[in-house]
Amino acid sequence: MPEDRARPACNACDPRDASVVELRIHGVSGGQAEELLDVEPAVRVGGDRLAGFFRWRRAPDTRTVPGVPREIFAWGNLTSGRASRALWLLLLPFILVNIAYWMRPAPPQEGAPPSRLHRAADLAYGSASRLLALGLTVLLVLAAAGVGMDLVGWQCPAYGERCAALRPLLGALSAPGGLLARPGLSLAAGALLPLAVVALLWRLSRRTTSVYEAAAQGTAPTPSAAAPLSRPHFWRNSMIMGRLRSVHIAVAVGAVGLVAAVPAARFDAAAGAPPVGAGLVGLLGAVLAGASLMALVPGTAHRWNRSADRVCARLRDTALGLLAATVLYTAWPRPGWTAQGRLPGYADGLTGLLAALGLLVLVLFAAAAALYARTPLKRDTAMRGLAGPSAAAVGLLLGGVFSSAVVYQSAGFLGGCHYPGAERAGCVPLATPAPYSWLQLAFALEAVVVAGVALWLWLRLRRRTAEEVSAAAALYGRRRDAYRTRMIARARAMGRMTESLPVALAAVLVPGLALAVLVAARAAGRPGAEEALHGAAGVLVTAGSWLGTLMLAALFGVGFSAYRRRPVRQAVGVLWDVGTFWPRVAHPLAPPSYAERAVPQLVARVAATAEAGRGVVLSGHSQGSVLAAATVWQLPPHVRPSVALVTHGSPLHRLYTRYFPAYFGPAALADAQGRVARWRNLWRVTDAIGGPVHTAPEGARTLEDAEPIPDPRRYDIPAGEALYPEILGHSFYVLDPAYADAVREATALLLPGTVGPAAAAAPDAADGGAHVEDEDERGDQG
Predict the structure, then answer these.
(1) From residue 647, how far is each of 366, 481, 596 by CA, in Å?
(2) Is the confidence at residue 6, as pLDDT, over 60?
(3) Cis peptide bond prior to 157, omega within 30° of 0
(4) For the segment 308-319, what is each residue's pLDDT rounded down to a tens digit?
(5) Which of 29, 288, 699, 720 gives 570 a disulfide partner, CB atoms 3.0 to 4.6 angstroms apart?
(6) Which residues pair with 621 in a beta bridge?
(7) Residue percentage of the chain with pLDDT more than 70
(8) pLDDT score recorded for residue 594
(9) CA 77 to chain centre
(10) Predicted confidence (pLDDT) per residue in 428-442, tens digit
(11) Among 683-697, 700-714, 761-775, which stretch is predicted with the lowest mean pLDDT?
(12) Contacts of 120 (CB under 8 A, 6+ apart)
C-alpha cells in the first residue's frame, strides 16, 4: 500500500472519519444486528456451538481490516419480522406462479435481432403467466364459494330439517320457515364467505404496497440491454401492481356473481320469466373478459399506465355494482324455486376453469420451448428452459389441492360424513364436484412420486459420496477408509446435490398428466372421467384429500407457532427470502417483494457514502449477494469507482443464472463486474447453494476466484480441542481467512476514496438514464 494512502487504525473512531466502509448484507434468515456485525462482547475461541470456550472480545477483533468500520444491512424483518407474515405460507401457489413469469429463457445473443417467432413466444409467455395467475385467484375464490354457496347456501337447505338438526347453527338457512330459508337468500348469505376472502386479499395487497416499496432519491443508473435489472424503475412496481390488483378483484367478484346468478337465471328461463338473469350473466361475463384482457397490457410509459389503471378501476367498480345487482336479483322471491341436488352451474364452471388453466400451462410450455430454441445459454439454463412452466404447474397443482381439500373436508364436517359408516348413522351426504376429486387423486399420486424422488436422491447421494472419497483423500493426503475422510466426502457430495433439482422438479409434474387426462375427458363430455373415481381410484381420492388437509393443517400450525416464536418466523422467512425477491408483476396478491424496499435503501446508502469521499466494500452472503448485485446495477455512474464487491456463498450462477437466465445470465453478471472497482467471489465445494460466478456462457470465463476455498481448513483435531474442525458448507464465510484477504485487497484498491462531495451532482446525460423522479418509464417489468 502506498504511504500517502496509509491511515492509522481507528477502531473506536466515527465511521464518517474512515476512508472505506465494509457494508455486509446477510443471507436468508438473518439474525440480530449484534450477531451479524460480529461485535458481541464475548467470542468463542474453542469448542462448538453446543459447548465451547469464550473470552472477552478486543476492539480490534471487531474489524475485518484495521481502520475499516463495519456496517450491516439487516433486511430479515421484511420476511420474518411480524408474526402475521408466517401465514403467507398459504399463498405459496401465488408465489410459484409469480416467479414463473421471471423464469423465461434468455433472449438471443446480443446484437441479433429477435425474430417474429421469438417476439410472439415472449409475448405468449408473459400473457399466459398473467392469465394463469388470474385463474389461480378464481380457483381460490371458487373454493370459498364451494363451501359458502354450494354446501352451506344450497345443498344444506336442500336437506331441510336433517341439516338443521345436524348443524343447528345453519338452521336459519335450512330449517323450513327459517329467516333465510329460501334459495336466493341462502345463496346471498353464503356469498359472504368468498367475498370475505376477496376483501382480505385486497386489504393485504394494498397495505404491503405502501410498506414495502421505496425509491432511492437522486440516483440514476445507466441502463444496459445485457442487464435488465439496471433499468431505472425496475424496483418501482406500484402502477403495474395497482392495475393487476384491480383486475384480480374484478374477476374474483365477477366469479362470485356468476355463481349466484346462474341458478336463478336457469330457473327463470325454465319458468318463462323475463331474461333479466341472462342479461346479468352476460354483463358479468363481459366484465370478466375485459378484465382478463387488461391483465395482458404490458408495462409502458407512465401516462399509459395511468390510463390503464383507471380502466381497470372502472372494471372493478362495475363488477362490484353488478354483484350487488345480482344479489338483489337472486334474493327476489320465486314461488316454486327449491334447492335440489348440487348448485347448478358450479361444477361445470369449475371444470371449464381447470380446462382453461391446463391449456394455459401448455401454452407456457410451448412458449418456453420456442424461446429456449434461440437462447445462447443452452447449458446454463435449467430444464431446457422449462423450469418456469414447471414452477407454474406445481403452483397450480398446489392451489387446486388446497382448494379441493378445504371443500372436501368441509363437506364431510358439515354433513357428518367424514368417517366410514356415517351414512348409516344418519349423516347428510353433501356432494363435491368431480374436479375436486381429480385434484385429490393427483395429489395422492404426487405423494407416491415424492417418496420415489426422495429414495432416488438418497441413492444418488450415496453414489456421489463414494465418488468423493477419493477426491477428499487426495486433497488432505489421508486414508480413504478413515471416518473423517468419509464425512468430508459426504459434505462434498451434499454440495453437489443442487444439480439434481431439475430432475426432481420434472418428476413431480407426472401426476399432472393424469389430472390433465381427466379434465380433458370431462370437458369433452365423456363419462369415463366420473367412472375413474370408483374402486381403487376412490381410495386414492380419499387419501389425497387427507394428505392435502394434513398439509394445510401443518401450514396453519407453523403459522400459529410463528406468532409465539421468532425462530420459527425466521425459518418461515427462508422460503420468502428466495421466493419473494421478484416484484409482483404476474400475481399482485402474492406476498410482497422485499427487494423493492431493500435495493433502493442499499443504493441510497452506498451512493451517499461514496459521495462523501469514502469507499464501500459491498459484502453479500447467499441471498444477500443477489441483493448486492441488484444494488450494483442501480448505482449511478459517478460512484462506481468507489465500490468493490465481495460475494460469498453466492447462488448468482448456480440458481439465478440457471433458473432466471433472462435477468442473471453471464452477460448480465459481466456487466455487474464492469460497474465496480473489483469483484471477488468466495465459494466452497461443500456449499449446496453457493458456487462460482460465470461471466461468459457455459463457464468459459469466471471471476478470479475460480477455485473453491478449502472446507474444512484442517483435517485433524487442533491442539487443545477434542473435536474435529466443523465442516462449514454454506455458513461462516466471514470467519475464513480468505474473506479477510478479499476485504483487505478491496480496501487497498479503494483508498483513499475516488468520489468527493462535488461529484454528487447529477450525471451527465451521456453517462446514463433519467432522474428517478422522471416517471415516464415506469413499468419496465411488464
Answers:
(1) 36, 35, 21
(2) no
(3) no
(4) 888 999 999 999
(5) 29
(6) 648
(7) 78
(8) 86
(9) 17
(10) 888 888 888 888 888
(11) 761-775
(12) 370
Residue whose cell numbers read 399482485: 588
The enclosing H or E element of 690 equals none
Among candidate residues 302, 49, 42, 343, the one with its CA nearest the CA of residue 187: 343
Give CA–CA dist 581/770, Å, rounded: 25
Residue 32: the pLDDT is 61
Rounded to 5, what percent of the chain is helix, strand, coil? Answer: 60, 5, 35
- Residue 664: C-alpha distances to residues 168, 660, 700 (Å): 58, 6, 16
- pLDDT tier at 156, thresholds 50, 70, 90: confident
Task: Check: CB of residue 173 under 8 Å from CB of residue 290.
Answer: no
H-type alpha helices, 103-216: 116-145, 156-159, 161-166, 171-174, 183-190, 192-212
Strands (E), 549-660: 615-621, 643-648
pLDDT tens-digit profile of 482-522? 999 999 999 999 988 888 888 888 888 887 777 777 666 66
Phi, psi of 702 (to 5 degrees): -130, 155
> For residue 104, how many C-alpha atoms fall within 13 Å in the half-sphere facing its CB?
28
Q: Is the confidence at residue 1, as pLDDT, over 70?
A: no
In three-state secondary structure terms, 60 is helix
Whole-angstrom Cα distance, residue 254 to residue 283? 9
Handedness of CA 633, 634, 640, 644 (dihedral sign): negative
Q: What nine digits make up the cell of 384?
A: 431446457
- Determine how many CB atoms are found less than 10 A away from the CB of residue 677: 17
With CA atoms as reference, report the closest residue to 80 among 621, 624, 730, 577.
Answer: 577
Residue range 617-628, pLDDT digits in tens: 999 998 999 999
Burial 80-113 (b: 16+ CB within 10 A, else e): beebebbbbbebbbbbbbbbbbbbbbbbbeeeee
Q: pLDDT per residue over 637-661, tens digit each? A: 999 999 999 999 999 999 999 999 9
pTM: 0.85
Contact 428, 489 (CB under 8 A): no
Number of H helices, E strands in the chain: 27, 7
